[in-house]
Amino acid sequence: GAVVSQHPSWVICKSGTSVKIECRSLDFQATTMFWYRQFPKQSLMLMATSNEGSKATYEQGVEKDKFLINHASLTLSTLTVTSAHPEDSSFYICSAKPGTGDTGELFFGEGSRLTVL
Amino acid sequence: GQNIDQPTEMTATEGAIVQINCTYQTSGFNGLFWYQQHAGEAPTFLSYNVLDGLEEKGRFSSFLSRSKGYSYLLLKELQMKDSASYLCAPVDSNYQLIWGAGTKLIIKP
Prior knowledge:
heterodimer, A: 117 residues, 0% helix, B: 109 residues, mainly beta, 5-stranded mixed beta sheet, 10 strands
């Protein structure tokens, strides 16, 4: 099946620094990628929808200036958590959808666990 | 509003059968996904139903009734490795997945 790679898997940073997480579709082109965060024992929360070549669409309540999303190519989207604080510590997951159809299977990255000290 | 209802937790015995129910209310409907998620890992795809009826895939089957806003995931011949959370995610009219909180399935020997 299709593979989505997410990097890094784990990251620990100091409060006030910025962290970049990469999401790559390894064997297909993804015009749309999604970014989620998940707190312990809670469901996935969609943060934003990333469209190649255009600005990301953020969900209500998600600060676009804090969570910068770039989808520069059909195989790469990045999420940058700027000026991270301890409350940003979470599990961040990306997913991608092959092709241009509206429905279809989503393939998830392995997730990135961010700990802000 | 949009709402997903699944049991929070279920317990079953190794080798048995378990059915995880999901009822949903969404703005429009474009199919429903089931995903499996082990603790600390990303979700993995199990099934996608867009038409009414039962889809069987090995030990896992998924059923959908669009008129009732209802789906279930059936797991047969349970194995210890099936202990995980199972997420029901219908797709709304904007083709967005609406995620439920998931059902934590505990398998006992």
